[in-house]
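Revision sheet: C-alpha cells.
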Amino acid sequence: MESRKPDAWGVKEVSEWLSSLELGQYKQKFEALSIDGMLLFEMTDQDLLNDLEVPVRLHRFKILENIKKLKEHCLSNQRQQDPEDSSQQQANSRAIPAEIEEIKWEMLVLKAVEGQLLNNTFLIGAEGASIGRNSASNDIVIGESFVSRKHCEIRFNQPTNQFLLTDTGSTTGTFLMVRQPLRLELGMMFQMGLSEFKVNNVRYNPYGKITSLELAIYEGPARQNAINVSAEGLTIGRDIANAYCIREDSQMSSFHGKITYDNGTFYLADIGSTNRTWRRLSGEGQKSEPYPLLVGDVIKIGSTVLVVQLPDSSQLPSVISSSEKETGESVVDDAACKICFTRELNVACYPCGHMFCDFCVSKSHNCPICRKYVQDLVKLYK
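Predicted:
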C-alpha cells in the first residue's frame, strides 16, 4: 500500500487502508463504487453518508481526518522532493498571484455581507479610510456598541502597491477570517465561536526546533484555561471526540478547527465550521501592525463582516475633465449611488459637488471620491 502515493491508489489499496483504520465493514461499498485514491481525496461527509452508507458520524469523522493526514503526507513528500520551491510557496502564501501582480489597485471595494451595513458597498481610494462608531471622525460608520469610536483604518502603501489594515487600539478587536492554514507564532490570537485564544508560550528543543506550544483561553466559557499542544496536534470543538472540547460554547461547531504540526511549525486551520475561525490583529486597546489585504479577504468588526473586492468598471468614478476639476461639478454620469449602487443619487456634497444617496454619504464627513471635507449636503430634485 505504501508503494504508490495515496492519490494514485487503486480500489484494492483503498480497501486495505480502510482495514488499517479498523473500518473494514465499509470495504464492500467502497469497492462496489470503485473508490480509488483520486476519488478518496475528493470525499466529503455527505458522500460518506449518502453514497457510501457510513451512518456513524464518528466513523465518518475518522475517515475524513485520516484522508487529511494522507493529503498532508503527500504534501510533505512533495516539500522534501523540492524544498526550495516549497519554501518559496510558503513565503508567498499571501502574495498577489503572478497573473495579476502588475495590476495597480489604488481602489478597493468593501462589500458588507453581514451586520447592520448588509449589502452596502464602500469604495476606498488611495487616501484610505477610517472605520468606527463615531460618525464625526470616521469614513465608514458602524453604529454598534461592540465597535470602538475609532476602531481600525485602511491605508494605501504606494511603494508596495498594498492596502494595509491596522487596528487602531479597539476594545473588541479587528478580525480576519482564516481561509488557509495559518502559521502560529508567539503572541498570535485567534477566535473560534465565543472563545478567544492566544499563543502564550512556545517550547524548543536544544537544537532550536519548536516542539510544543501553549494556548491561553482569555475569552469565552473556558476562560483562564490553558491548552498544551504537542507535535500530535489537536482538534477543537463542542463534540467530546475533539482533543479539546468546549461544550458550553454555543457559537462553536462540533468540530470547529484544528492545529497541525509540520517540520517544526504549528498551523491553525478551520475544518468547515459554521461561524468560521478568525485571526485577531491585536489585543484589547493595542494598536496592531499593518496587515496587507488581498482580494477575497474577509474582515470582521463587531457583528459586521466585510469582503475585500476589486472594483469593476461600474464602480470606478468617472474621468474628471480639467474644467470639472476647476468648477467642482458632479462627475457621476448614471443615476446610481457610487457607494451602494442600489439607491438613486439625491444629494450633492458641498463644495466638491460629487453626488451620492443621502444614506451612504451621511456615514462620512469626507467625500468618498475626492476626500474633501463635506461642509454641507445639497438636496437634489428631479
